[in-house]
Structures are given as C-alpha cells and as structure tokens.
User: Fold these one by one.
Assistant:
Number 1:
Amino acid sequence: MKAFLIDRYGKHSGRIGDVPAPEVADHDVLVRVHAASVNLLDSKIRKGEFKLILPYSFPLALGHDVAGVVMRVGSHVQHFKPGDEVYARAPDGHIGTFAEQIAVNENALALKPSNASMEEAAALPLVALTAWQVLVETARLKKGQKVFIQAGSGGVGTLAIQLAKHLGAFVATTTSTHNVPWVKALGADVVIDYKQQDFSSVLQDYDVVLNSLGADELEKSLKILKPGGQLISISGPPTPQFAQAQGFSWPLRLIMGLLSSGIRRKARRKGVSYAFVFMRASGPQLREITTLVEAGNLKPVIDRSFPFDATADALGYVEQSRSKGKVVIKIHPGVADE
C-alpha cells in the first residue's frame, strides 16, 4: 500500500512510497483511510522535536487523525465490525494515517458522527480531544467561568471556543485582523486582534488560560489569571508530573523539571497552577465528542483539502500557521470499500 513516509528527521523530508499492509493485532481495527488531517504535531515529529519522548524508527508514516471504513477487526474486538464508518486519533507509537490503510487499537476508535463527512470527521480527533482534555478533564471548566483561548482561528482554537461556550464559559481569544469577525462567529465573547493589542493589557481576572503559543505568551498569561486560576499549556514546557505519568526515565524527568521550573515558580508566586497537556488518544472521549457534533454543539472547521499526492504541500501549508481551522488530506475520497 501507499503511505507518506519520512526516512530521517528534517523540515523538508517526506515521500510517498510503498509499505507492507498493516498487521492486525487482536484488539486492532483495520481502517481503509478515506481522509486524514494535518496537525502541527506531524510537522514537529517530522523535524525531530519529539524524538526524546516519542522515539520512532524509520521509515515512518506520518499522520495522527483518520476517518474511514472498517475493513477487518482483530479476534478480540467487540465494538466494531467491517463496514463501520469510524474516526480516531491514532495512539502515540502507532501513528501513520497518511496512508491507504491503518490498524488502530479499538480503544482509540469511535463511530464517525452521522452528520459529518469523512473529511469533516478527519478534522476532529486531535484538536477536539485536545480541547476536551484541557477544558473538561484538566480545567474542569464550569458555567460562568472566564477562559482565554489563544489563537482562536487555529485547529485547536476553533474547537476549544465552541466547547467552552457549550460548557457555559465566557470566552476570550486572539486572532489576526482579517479573522476577527470570523472568530466572533464561532462564539467568542471577546476577540483581540493581536496585531493591534496585547492581550495581557486588555484581559484580567480569568479562571483558565489555554496556551498554545510560545514562552512570551505563556508568561504574559500569568498576568491575566485570578488567584487560584489555571495556566494550561499544550505547547510546553512539559512538567515532572507529565514525565512521571508517561513513565519516562529519571534523567528525562529531571530535564523536564528543569525546562518548566521557571514558569512553575512564577505561577506559584502568582497563586495559580501550571499544567502541561500532551493529548492522548481516547475512544470514550471521542464518543462524547460525537454526541456534541451530532447535536450541533461542535462543528468541524476545514480550511483546505489536499489530494494524497500533495501531502508534502499540506504539511507546508500548516507550517505557515495561517490556516483557519484544519487542513485535510483526501486519500480514498468517495471510493467504496472492498
């Protein structure tokens, strides 16, 4: 079968090549991939930014998000059958959705929302699970609380705004000048044009910040939080708690502790907490997300779609950080499954 592969780490590495069909373990579901979506995580893995915590071997098929049709199931699979339309964020260590087929552990899989196309479903898993794990699982966001979500026009931002509003929160976000009306239409209560204003001088007394940007924005976020507030970052730096939960070696735990010591110390002085969230695959949480999509509370946002043979172009487009929502790769669009 065909897959988009990298043979080494590097910004411009990648090719479409032939690989063996996936092996299907007892708890695996073999999915014929109709669509996949591109995340910044794919680019960061291609460049080797996560090689310490996600050691992959080459050649490596990239891709984390998938929507498709079940072809075959492992002997112990109970909840899926051939012909089911499904979607997932492939688990770490078993990625490779930029391919014609992928075997996914059933615990990471869910039935596709009935009112979403394959492309729309592929745009959801990683960003929707990230928003869920930050706002619902970690922050335990409550009705009436104030949350600041950075980069409201990005993949995570577009879903996080919708989820926060569904939870009853007051939502502020940032975006560029021409995207301000568009992001307001997603439901944000306050939209700050970052080219015109500094969010840290405009916002105050927030309960939660979802940080997805760099060190400068991370430190500025401390200024807008009320005592007892939560600064939750998906872009780092990682914490010792994260390293321990992942079962990393003692030296790696020490390194991560050092990387985040500064922001954790400043957070304590401010009377707020700091947490790092590296989203994980979860079929049960995807089922919750499916319910929200089918009820109209969450809507996938797609900027552009690329054909499979232009996967490298899709990665390059995402790396420009200008997309409104998600970028999708069409792998078997409209093709009946065998």
Note: Residues 127-276 form a domain with the Rossmann fold fold (CATH 3.40.50.720).
Number 2:
Amino acid sequence: MYIVHSTFIVPEHKSDEVISIYQTRSKMVDQYEGFRSFQLLQNEKKKGELTVQIEWETKEHYMKWVQSDAFKKVHEHEKNYPDQELAAIIPTVKKYEVVAT
C-alpha cells in the first residue's frame, strides 16, 4: 500500500470553510484505479493544520493518478478558488510505502 499526505496550514477562522470544501469534494480520485481511501485529518491542537491522506494500492497507481487529466483538473480548480488567501497555500507532501501491518 502507498499513502500520500498533503498537509497545509489555513487561518484557524477558515478551517471550517476548508473542511466544508472537502466534505463536498468532486470525488474524482475515488473512481481512479488503485484508489483505496481518502481522509481529511484535522490536528486536534492546531485546528488550522489539515492533512489530506489518500491511500493507494501501489505507488504506480498513485503516479498514474498524478499524471492524469483528472488530477490536473482538480488541482486547477484549487488554484482558481475565489479566496486568494486559501488558493495561495502550498501543501507539504509526504509519501509513504507501507512496509508492515
């Protein structure tokens, strides 16, 4: 299994707005081959720290998603978000290979 974390910091007063966006997300990734699960995680002590966690069957499945037109479409939408403060946020991405369960 392959897990990708995209962590970003938003102003705490905007965290509910961002959570709402993810609660109504397009779910394009969910239909992609090798997709296993999606979660939006909120740091319990720092409410403005959010992490998108996506699990894939393999790294190869993840790479096919990243190279897809659907991936580009989803991320272009983020860049064009009306709230420019939120649109300008660049996440920290970490990738993990599951080596034991």
Note: The chain is about 30% helix and 30% strand.
